[in-house]
Amino acid sequence: MEIADIRGYALSSPITPPQHRSFSGGTRLLHKRDVVLVVVETRDGERGVSTAGASSSAMREYFEGDSQGTFADLVNGPVADALEGETLAHIADAHDLIADAGLPSHLQNEAISAIDVALHDIRGKEVGAPIYELLGDSDDPDDPAPTTEIPLYASAGMYMEPDGYAEQAATIADLGFMGYKYRPGIGPDADRRTVDLLSETLDETEFMLDVHTWWKVRDAYDRETVRELVTHAADRGAYWIEEPVEPDDRQGYRELAATGAPLAGGESEESAAGLVELGRTEAVSFLQGDVRHHQGYTGCWDAVEFCHGRDVEFVPHNFGTWVGLLANAHLVAAAPDVRLLEYPVFENDPVLDAEQDPGMYPFDLAFDIIEGQPSVSDGVLTLSDDPGLGLDVDLDVVEEYPFVDGPWTEFRYEDDT
């Protein structure tokens, strides 16, 4: 394919008024959610899309000076310069061209991820096949057929009272999701109470803890407290405990894994190689790569193959728009040992019919970015056999959701002066 044009559009979905979420020792402010929409066009007129950017996945609230706006500039500048006019025999060739552009490593990997997904979208349209068929294409008759019906776990609760988590989890269970994942960090005693309530409230629905807050707060969560909370959650049946220590704390992962608790991690790794490195520690039971951040399908497939035959399950991280949801869904559909996908629950989600809204906060752009909506029913996403990603982006969002400068979220601590 010959690349004719590459564009990056920084978009913001405001949270008005900003929301304040109290956690142990401080308050988290939520101002907006940002997205970079990447559009790639070929000389033949095919268009591929993806979403990417200076990702919150890497848990950089301020991105060390980078933002979604500066990432869009990078796409429109060095990335476009490296690829426009080039003829690619293989999608991986684009990785090499971007690598030669001399970008900082974390931004290089974000750029490679965005372009890889968009090029797979184009390739699928060129051959008239969904991406999951491209990824699963094999001459081996023993390879299983793609799985187009994908169980979802709901990624929801953030910094509530224990009863609030339990009520939200009950709604998620009624909607048919396989599991309910929430963000604790409201104090060790209240965190234990939340685990107890979820264990008592949920029957067939699993619960997971996304505990990145524990290593952000000050004083309340020392290493021994974290170990006790992880052990308590595991004893009460938690499906996994996610990011219980700082992402690069390999020894911390190993120490907690020694308790027998099921741990998850990987979303904060800067590269696909980092995912595999975390897997090699044998400390995580679930490895959470993301095609938007770990060098696209090309990079994530390396991690999927690493997990094959080992005692670690690849479960994609996915937190953002429906474009990201469907992009990661194609990976799940194609990979023989991958079966589960994260579904972020935002307010007023049009595919969820519940008496009480289980959404975390508003993110209207997450839904408006595509025309139509994904097929989600009873906690299962069904992929179509439409070519490429199987979606159409509504480019009106470029005008409707202009970029707003500044951090999307802030952590303010009680002892700050």
Structure description:
By secondary structure, this protein is an alpha/beta fold. The protein has two domains: 3-129 and 400-413, 2-Layer Sandwich (Enolase-like, domain 1), CATH 3.30.390; 149-391, Alpha-Beta Barrel (TIM Barrel). It has helices at 68-83, 92-99, 105-127, 131-135, 162-174, 188-201, 223-235, 250-257, 272-280, 296-307, 322-334, 365-368, 397-400; strands at 3-23, 26-42, 47-52, 149-158, 179-183, 206-210, 240-242, 263-265, 286-287, 313-314, 341-344, 375-377, 380-382, 409-413. The strands form two sheets. Strands 4, 5, 6, 7, 8, 9, 10, 11, 12 and 13 form a ten-stranded mixed sheet that branches. Helix 7 links the parallel strand 6 and strand 7 (240-242). Helix 2 (92-99) runs antiparallel to helix 3 (105-127) and helix 9 (272-280) packs parallel to helix 10 (296-307). The protein is globular. Residues 56-62 have low confidence and may be disordered.
